[in-house]
Amino acid sequence: MPGDVPSGKIEVTEVFSYGCPACNFYNPLMQKVRKALPANAVMTYVPASFKANEDWPMFQRAYYAAQALGVAEKTHDEMFNAVWRPKAPLAIMNDDGRSLKNPQPTIEDAAKWYAQYGVKAEDFAATANSFAINAKMKRADNYVKVTGTDSTPTLIVAGKYRLTPATAGEQDKVVALVQYLIQLETAH
Q1: Rounded Cα–Cα distance for residues 170 and 132 (Å)
Q2: What is the pTM of this model?
Q3: Which of 11, 56, 83, 188 sits CB 3.0–4.6 Å from 51 for a disulfide?
Q4: What is the pLDDT of residues 53-62, one digit of tens each?
Q5: CA-CA distance, 183 to 181, in Å (whole number)?
Q6: Whole-angstrom Cα distance, residue 89 to residue 102?
């Protein structure tokens, strides 16, 4: 959750969803942002849930369960592949690429996928449906609201600067803009 960073570190938070096609498209860019962070900055993630018809609340729950079970870091990038590659195990779109699957993947489907990373599916599902995860989801929804985030992916730097790849001008400017905002915060 934002704010859970070591003292003295500047937080760069990506608001995202595994169900978001733009987040999938921009994930390589977000990897570049993460890898280019200076030593005094840290990347955090807040999964958004504002598109229930595209399974975003389930993906939000899955991210927080993976985080609680210690596998979110190693599964984050792969989860996009599990949703967006052709014949993906957690695909939300039909093979035509234009219509949503019905039914959408469930948390039990996600639990089976995470099992390949050493987490028992039943433990994943139990964690995902716990009070602690419900509380994290509510805090994430509040963070999205308080920061005025209305699209994904969105980056929030130091809790006060909000940008998207589009508002940064173009993709190749995102890393430089994030680094500039970190320098601005470091100077204060």
Answers
A1: 38
A2: 0.94
A3: 56
A4: 889 999 999 9
A5: 5
A6: 14
